[in-house]
Amino acid sequence: MRISRNTFDRPWAAFMFFTRLPLWRLHQPRKESYDSVVEWWPLVGWLTGGVMAAVLWWGSMVLPWTVTVLLAIVARLLLTGALHEDGLADFIDGFGGGGTDRQRILDIMKDSHIGTYGVLGLVVYIGLLFAALHSMSPQLAALTVLAADPYAKMLAGQVIQMMPYARTAQTAKAHTVYRRMSTTSALLLAVQGLLPMVIYLWYFSDFVEWEFVIFLPCLAMYFIYRLMWSRLRGYTGDCCGALFLLTELMVYLAVVYQTCRL
Question: How much is the pTM?
Answer without folding.
Answer: 0.93
